[in-house]
Amino acid sequence: MQSELRKKLLDAFTNNEAEYLSGQHLADIIGCSRTAVWKHIEELRKDGFELEAVRRKGYKIIKIPERVTADEVRLGLPTKVLGRDIHYEETVDSTQKIAHRLANEDAPEGTIIIAEEQLLGRGRMDRRWHSPKYTGIWMSVILRPNIPPPKAPQLTLITAVAVVQAIEDFTGLSPQIKWPNDILINGKKVTGILTELQADADRITSIIIGIGINVNQKVEEYPEDLRAIATSLSIECDKKLQRADLIKLILQKLEQLYFLYLEKGFYPIKLLWESYAISIGKYITARTITGSIHGKALGITEDGVLKVEDDSGKVHHIYSADIEL
Ligand code: BTN
Question: Which stretches are labeled DNA-binding (predicted)?
Fold first, then answer.
């Protein structure tokens, strides 16, 4: 976890991006001594930040480190709740596992866990999620909405819309959503979302949203069996991308949509989700654990359940399945 002083220091640079900040001014804003400011500036330097120091003017950050760090995500983060507490890890089994532990320890809503690498990344339906080092965004977000447990899948759909909007703005690509939570570009999967719950009988205590985005992988880095079905943003837009900037944008979009949802309910999200959905109006096969249903995807219900109409006109409600187009 970042120290409070370091957080305040980075917030001060965020709020005064274009200016030099003197040691005294920083000490006043942060509420510490000039020596403490100097010590923290030196620590930022050790962690790969480049700071320019100009006599009688002060300090300015001119370069941030190449790796994703909690500091880099915090610097310039425009959110009120999401990402205000950041746990950054180099290597973990799964960020979901850490998020569950932190949620049990009363971590505040909006706490995020980011890892550079996951050894046992979890996907939907007990699958593995390939999470190699330094190339992707492997992140879990803790939310604590006051909603009944059956409404939890709505959070998956909110997240999918947020990630699509962030990728669109960040890369100019046009991602689409395959129900419930796959984000595809040119028909290949670029993002997966895994929503897990902690709940009492009638109340959610926390929702852990896991977001996995393939950002900078090259084709040759993918295992053979994944090449035909998975891609990365870098492959699709042909350039290397700054992961920390994309994380910030995702947190910003997710917070906007989450607040909209808490205020106005699911309906506005449903409309947005349907506008990005690849399968609506198309014939699909939904493979559920009890069998396959073939038919036309009509849309989603208020609870985020997929409606599929088979050839006899019967409408099926699909809660969990793999979809084939
Ligand atoms: C899917 O099967 O499509 C969902 C994949 C979700 C992967 C993310 S990566 C961050 C978080 N930690 C995990 O172990 N899984 C999720």
Answer: 23-42
